[in-house]
């Protein structure tokens, strides 16, 4: 059974919403958490699947110069998800994920198997936890609602990028203001 309580999240940083919404629902079950962690990873590509110009349309990096966007496109790990495929460790593991095209759904999955749709991500939005590699105390999964292209950075790369690009951090904060 899926309960649809979709929140439209036009910005970045989904984590604050989860803590408030799911903490009361999350009956910690280590076996269920382990099962969610076992989702196989779709293949990654280190070569850009799209032209760096496509990144120009992403609010988080639109301020960057052409040469910087071209270098960033080379730095990203690219992943194509088909409809229904899960993005492994989307909200943990220290990864930063930028949705370049498509649509992602974020669901709470209870140990009983019931699902609650809690987020709807559109192109240009991102998710991840670049400041901690620990598993959050939430049983969430991110899956493709339609074919979706994800550009990812590991935590160290994302932190370095944010430190080099203060306007990116500003865009992240502005996105959080729209939650």
Strand content: 25-35%
Low-pLDDT residue intervals, each spanning 5 or more residues: 1-29
Please compute the radius of gyration using only Cα atoms: 16 Å
The total count of strands amounts to 8
Helix content: 25-40%
Q: How many separate helices?
A: 5
What structural class do helix, strand and pairing data support?
Answer: alpha+beta
Distance between the termini: 26 Å
- Averaged pLDDT: 74
Describe the structure.
With 179 residues, the protein is an alpha+beta fold. It is globular and about 50 Å long. Strands 1, 2, 3, 4, 5, 6, 7 and 8 form an 8-stranded mixed sheet that branches. It has 5 helices and 8 strands; from the N terminus they run E-H-H-E-H-E-E-E-E-E-E-H-H.
Topology:
Blueprint: E1 2-4, H1 15-22, H2 30-37, E2 44-45, H3 66-75, E3 77-81, E4 86-87, E5 96-109, E6 115-122, E7 126-128, E8 140-153, H4 155-164, H5 166-177
Parallel strand pairs: 1-6
Antiparallel strand pairs: 2-3, 3-8, 4-8, 5-6, 5-7, 5-8
Helix pairs in contact: 4-5
Task: Give a quick set of tags describing it.
179 residues, alpha+beta, eight-stranded mixed beta sheet, 5 helices, 28% strand, globular
